Structures are given as structure tokens and as C-alpha cells.
Amino acid sequence: MLKDEKWRKMKAALSPAFTASKMREMVPLMIEISHNIVEYLKEHLTEDIDLDDLMSRYSNDVIASAAFGLQINSLKERDNIFFKAGKDVFNFSLFQSIRMIFSDHFPSLSKKLGFTVIPKSTSEFFRTLIASTVDYRIKNKVERRDMIQLLIQLSTEWTETELAAQLFVFFVAGFETTGNTLINCIHELALNPHIQDILYEELKAFKETKGNLVYENIGELKYLDCVLNETMRKWSAAIFVDRICTKPYVLPPPREGGKPCQLKPGEVIYNAVNSIHMDPKYYEEPEKFIPERFLDENKHKIKPFTFMPFGVGPRYCIGSRFALMEMKILLFRLMLNFKVLKCAKTLDPIKMSPVGFNMNIWGGSWVKFQARKA
């Protein structure tokens, strides 16, 4: 984890990759990749669909294009090395999970012991990919509006290892968390057809009056925004947010008769995001999927710091707009083309796997897509 001034400089350097102008340029490529998903589903309407596999392929292809300048169709090139490398990162065994926790708590000792959370073959693949791409573009004067190009512009200020690490973090953050949020959202829509109907009517009316989805009008889809927010509330993209204490602080007793907690500088604090999102003190009937919580007329009921899907404060996720846009574009295309239905494999109610560091549905998420009439 970068700290203090070095972190601030790196954030300032990478932030231009997520400005409005850059996001506007990303919309066409996301639409193209979402089109691949729609066409794939049209060819598999009679089948039960594994959302885990489908959404991870969508996330993979978006990141491959936006960050690395690679055009991949993982639905056709099913064993492409980029997708396999991404899956390897999140194929956690119990031993890998323990190593991750140990490395987070004892970074210096982990470094001395040679502990690595990411498989060496995977990290070497990304390091080589980034280095060779940068080298090719510089030698051949090739420019593309993606994060690799931003790294080239910053290459005089940061080491190749530092920049490659940040690009890898972007890949990891976008591959699993965005995909999981889409999985949980679509699964909830299958379980709640009345919510799906409301969402479809909004998208249909938008399509009839506005036509194509572009960066400038994507924010007008209010109910879609509510559906995604409610998904991220009920099924947090990250199960915790960790922060390092910078000065002594005393947390008050959590309950009557409890003891205060003394925090010391340097200690790592894990904030269980989902515990807050599912606390009945903050959300009435938190176990229910109710997108209307996030309508403009109800937002005043949400207390500050009780909804933080992308973290809060200075280390708020700088890729949040990118992730939201990526999800909205796909859901827009899916809902206009298909109804999402339960199938024999659909888990109802949803149960989460106790393994891993994300909200993964136990046994996977399976649904069926039914084509809407034109």
C-alpha cells in the first residue's frame, strides 16, 4: 500500500484516467462488449446461464480494452490467457487466504519470507504484458486512449514496477468486484420480477425518447441507479474496507457495559462494510431488496457514512464512475433485450459462500434469459 505523500502523488497522477472526457471515450467500447454479451445470450436462450462465468468475461473484456488496449472477446476466445490470468488471481485456496491476511498484517516480515499473495506466474504475465506494450508503443509511436498510455506519460516520474502495480490493482478491483455486483444484481432481478418490470419500463421509455445511451444521458436513468445502489448495499462489493490509523483515537463502547477500544498509530482497522449496510438501525428491513430506498425523495433517510460501496474519504475508489458506467451499460442492454427468469438452479433465497474476500453466491448464480418481444 502506498502511503502519505507518495500515495497522494500517485492518485493525482492516475485521476486524469477517470475524468468525464476519458469516461466519454470509454462508452463506445463498453457498448461494443455489452453487444457481444447480448448476441451470446440470443444463441443460448434454451440454456441455464452461469452468471459467474458470463459476468467475469464481460468485466475481463472491458478492463482488457480500457486499461491494456487489448481487444478480446472472451465469449469466443474462452481460454484466452488474459482471462485465465484474472481467474487465477481470485482462485483462493485456504492457504492463499491465510497468506493474504498475514501479508496485510505483517508486510515487512512477509517480504523477508518471500510470501506472495498473487501467483508468481500471474504477476510475471502482467509485468511482461505491460512492459512489452509500453515498449512497442514508444518505439512505433502508437497512441491509444487507455491507461497504458497514461503510464507512458508518467514514466519519467514513477518506476515501471510502481506503475505496473497500480495498473494491476485497477485490473483486480474491476475484474472481481464489478462482476460480482452484476451477478448479485441480475440474480436479485430474477427473484424480484416486479422490480425488474419497473426497471424495464424506465429503460424502455428512455430508449423511446432519448434513443442511444451516451455518457451525457446515462445519469438520467434514476431507477437503474437505485437498483445498483441497493445491490451494493445488500451485497457489498468488498466485505471490508481497511485503513491505517494515523493518530491515537478512542472508539466508544459498542454497547452498554462494553469497553472502549484504544487505537494506536500504525494499526490496521478493518471496517465491516456489509455489517453497516445490513444494520436495521440504518435500513428498515435490511434483508429485503428495496431499490426505492435510494430515490431522491428517500435519500435524506440515509445517514452519512452508512452507505459506502466504494469506500469514503481521501481513499475513495477513483474508479467508481468507471465501474458504475460499465454496469449500467450492460444492464441497459440486457433488460431491454431479455427478461431474467429463475431456473431450477437459481438459489432462492440467496446464500453467500463463506470462502473468499467477496460476496460470492454459494454454489454459483444460475438464471435463464427470455427474449423480449420487439
TrEMBL record:
Heme binds at residue 317. It catalyses: an organic molecule + reduced [NADPH--hemoprotein reductase] + O2 = an alcohol + oxidized [NADPH--hemoprotein reductase] + H2O + H(+). SUPFAM superfamilies: Cytochrome P450 (SSF48264). Its cofactor is heme. Belongs to the cytochrome P450 family. PANTHER family: CYP9F3-RELATED, CYTOCHROME P450. This is unspecific monooxygenase. It comes from Bombyx mandarina (Wild silk moth). The gene is LOC114247205.
